[in-house]
């Protein structure tokens, strides 16, 4: 996983946790927030 993508995913999760609980956050939410394709998330 590239460090840039990893950091973007980490930051997106942190941002989303400010808005809703972990149990309500989906992979699609994270992917949309950081601007990557959902399949890219699964690839990494």
CATH superfamily: Homeodomain-like
* CATH class category label: Mainly Alpha
Question: Taking Cα atoms only, what radius of gyration do you get, to the nearest Å?
Answer: 10 Å
Total number of helices: 3
- Taken from the alpha-carbon principal axes, the silhouette is globular
Kindly report the CATH topology.
Answer: Arc Repressor Mutant, subunit A
Q: What CATH architecture do you see?
A: Orthogonal Bundle
Question: How would you spell out the order of helices and strands?
Answer: HHH
Structural class: mainly alpha
State the separation between the terminal residues, measured CA to CA. 5 Å
The unreliable regions are none
Describe this structure in words.
The protein has 44 residues and is an all-alpha fold. It has one domain (3-43): Arc Repressor Mutant, subunit A. Helix content is 66%, strand content 0%. It has three helices and no strands. It has helices spanning 3-17, 27-34, 38-43. α1 (3-17) crosses α2 (27-34). The N and C termini lie close together (5 Å).
Element layout with pairings:
Elements: H1 3-17, H2 27-34, H3 38-43
Short description:
The chain is 66% helix and 0% strand. It has 44 residues and is an all-alpha fold.
Characteristic terms for this protein:
single chain; mainly alpha; Arc Repressor Mutant, subunit A; 44 residues; 3 helices
